[in-house]
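Design a sequence for this backbone.
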């Protein structure tokens, strides 16, 4: 498998030179300056591709080519936006970038309540606290009927939290859930003059009446339109699972488990319709067993995100070491390597540590933590390759 790294473009303080030095082979990036829904022009793609190549690396994967919200909730403008998406696929294909990671999560991408949870060893990790998440939903977002989504015990804890939570903590929760986690990916709520909660409510409102079936229908409409172009230009579309893999804020999520993935692969039967196997996102759901999913969908895994999580008894989850947790990364590598040694993989989210602690990195994407994880993943790959090579002797 090809070792890739998520790089945030020419302004990323982690330079391509640093990445070459630590053994990265391919780059995962996007045209971050182009708003969702707009066309990625051939010239802009080539410009970035040449820049990456002149630094001795390849642009292997696009993550993400964002699917506009209007396509997800099925607005009347969706046909035009889908046309734009098709042109972007064509331009990427012509430029030789053949793997596109995208997601179909309505309104909000990944959800965490704490981006700097201190661990005993002095490093920091990402964390999802069920009660703080529920507090945001019931007390900050004030979503109609939100309380119905939680158990009476959870609601009781939410009310307890309300008595003690400080204004700073509330601000930080808002910033974490809907600003910092989202903006570096899609720049959804990036205008500092707006009230982020109001903006987020407006996006959620667009999904009134969109249940799981309707969202699936809209995804099928999208895929049936774009996959033929992907086929024509030899581009593989790899849907990223929901993070976390369950409904949030009353919004449906449709890429959360085995049945969902199978359903999507059946929406369009094509060698170009596939999956980003994100062991981190999927492992945050009790219902998912990563080696089983890898085995079942191996022919459609076009890209792997390697990280792991641990689910706690109270429903919280935390990012685990890449060597442990529910992600079962070594077993997943074993399955993927047995099948095909050429797909790209990247380590996902690393701990915040060492010299990075006071630097401004995108949450989850600091340097040393990911470098450590990459070393661990390389070790696992070496073990697996050794096993496979010995078997063939
Ligand atoms: C978070 C990421 C996701 C992912 C997108 C792909 O760290 O894994 O935001 O990039 O969902 O479309």
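Sequence:
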């Amino acid at each position: 498998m090809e070792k890739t790294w998520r790089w945030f473009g020419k302004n990323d303080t982690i330079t391509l030179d640093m990445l070459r030095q630590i053994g990265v082979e391919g780059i995962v990036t996007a045209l971050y300056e182009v708003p969702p829904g707009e066309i990625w022009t051939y010239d802009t793609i080539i410009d970035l591709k040449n820049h990456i190549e002149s630094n001795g690396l390849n642009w292997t994967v696009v993550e993400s080519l964002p699917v506009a919200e209007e396509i997800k909730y099925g607005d009347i403008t969706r046909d035009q936006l889908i046309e734009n998406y098709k042109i972007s696929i064509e331009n990427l294909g012509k430029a030789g970038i053949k793997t596109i990671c995208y997601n179909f999560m309505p309104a909000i991408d990944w959800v965490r309540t704490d981006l700097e949870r201190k661990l005993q060893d002095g490093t920091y990790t990402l964390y999802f606290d069920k009660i703080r998440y529920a507090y945001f939903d019931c007390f900050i977002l004030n979503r109609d009927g939100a309380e119905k989504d939680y158990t009476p015990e959870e609601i009781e804890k939410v009310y307890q939290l309300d008595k003690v939570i400080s204004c700073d903590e509330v601000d930080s929760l808002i910033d974490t859930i809907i600003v910092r986690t989202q903006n570096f990916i899609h720049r959804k709520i990036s205008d500092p003059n707006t009230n982020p909660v109001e903006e987020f409510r407006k996006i959620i409102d667009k999904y009134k009446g969109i249940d799981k079936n309707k969202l699936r229908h809209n995804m099928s409409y999208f895929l049936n339109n774009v996959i033929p172009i992907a086929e024509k230009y030899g581009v593989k579309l790899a849907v990223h699972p929901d993070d976390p893999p369950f409904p949030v804020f009353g919004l449906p999520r449709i890429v959360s488990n085995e049945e969902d993935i199978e359903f999507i692969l059946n929406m369009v039967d094509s060698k170009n319709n596939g999956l980003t196997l994100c062991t981190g996102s999927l492992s945050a759901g009790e219902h998912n067993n990563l080696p089983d999913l890898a085995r079942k969908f191996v022919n459609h895994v076009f890209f792997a995100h390697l990280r792991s999580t641990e689910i706690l008894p109270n429903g919280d989850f935390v990012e685990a070491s890449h060597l442990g947790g529910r992600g079962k990364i070594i077993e997943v590598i074993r399955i993927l390597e047995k099948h095909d040694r050429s797909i790209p993989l990247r380590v996902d989210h690393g701990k915040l540590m060492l010299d990075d602690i006071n630097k401004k990195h995108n949450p989850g994407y600091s340097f040393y933590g990911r470098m450590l994880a990459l070393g661990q993943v390389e070790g696992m790959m070496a073990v697996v390759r050794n096993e496979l090579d010995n078997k063939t002797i």
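The chain is about 45% helix and 15% strand.
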